[in-house]
């Protein structure tokens, strides 16, 4: 009995030490573009992202689109994926990921006072109204994506339907301006940073915006599968806390130039091209990481109405905001 008591006492004494030397949890997170995703440069401010390297390490994995992210989640090749509302709906209905959960906000479109995606036509061209797009060729960055669906929704409001009244083609964002200038397409769908290209202001004008088409959009949400959340909840909360702290830090006016330089250094481009980041010219990021679930539900309902989803999705069934709420509470 004495020996057992001594053993218990020894374990109690050294348990905190053992825990403190536990290996950090490796979090594999996908990302698409910077600065919408902060994961690639989270380590740039170690005094801000205090838990990185302690309770977790980060493995940022670049993807060229959200569809491969769904495959990566299904194959357990990534742990966290920032998905557009369109990709989330497909992951649940077509991808069979019934255990996928929304865990945080990443970006919202059309919030009052902040950026909304834009649809450009030639300034001196024949397109003056949305009705003038009948019979024309329109460029989108990804068919079935959020920007594409807003385009279709706006044209439907004006009595125009895909294939019957117009043609949509996929064009990568960096190539869209040249396609518009060369009259190869009649409208382009623009996202930051490409929409801030001065050439667009010279040759084009905004015909309408994503907000005009569909109101506020919950553009990107963080997602993870239930098993990962349950197994690594403490590390996940630390990661979200670090991300929220970095968002708040980079959004402060006194840190603006340094924030711009961090993004520019990562992109290996002049800082002047990124003066808009983390300002009101950028997408809105909720400072507490809470997604706009009402907007998300409306966005996914639109996806269903446009025929991109086989069945409706009840967003409330796929949400776990416990970790983000705990992380935000620490920062109060």
Would you kindly provide a written description of the structure presented here, covering whatever features stand out?
The protein folds into two domains: 22-109 and 217-330, D-Maltodextrin-Binding Protein, domain 2, CATH 3.40.190.10; 118-214, Periplasmic binding protein-like II (D-Maltodextrin-Binding Protein, domain 2). The protein starts with a helix and ends with a helix. The longest helix has 19 residues, at 2-20. The chain is globular. It has helices spanning 2-20, 66-74, 85-93, 146-157, 173-181, 198-203, 210-214, 226-231, 233-251, 256-267, 293-305, 322-330, and strands spanning 25-31, 56-62, 80-84, 100-109, 118-122, 137-140, 167-170, 188-190, 204-209, 217-225. The protein contains twelve helices and ten strands. α9 (233-251) crosses α12. β6 (137-140), α4 and β7 (167-170) form a beta-alpha-beta unit. 39% of the residues lie in helices and 18% in strands. It is α/β, with parallel strands linked by helices. The relative contact order is 0.17. The strands form four sheets. It has a three-stranded antiparallel beta sheet with strand order 3-10-4. The model is unreliable at 1-20 (pLDDT under 50).
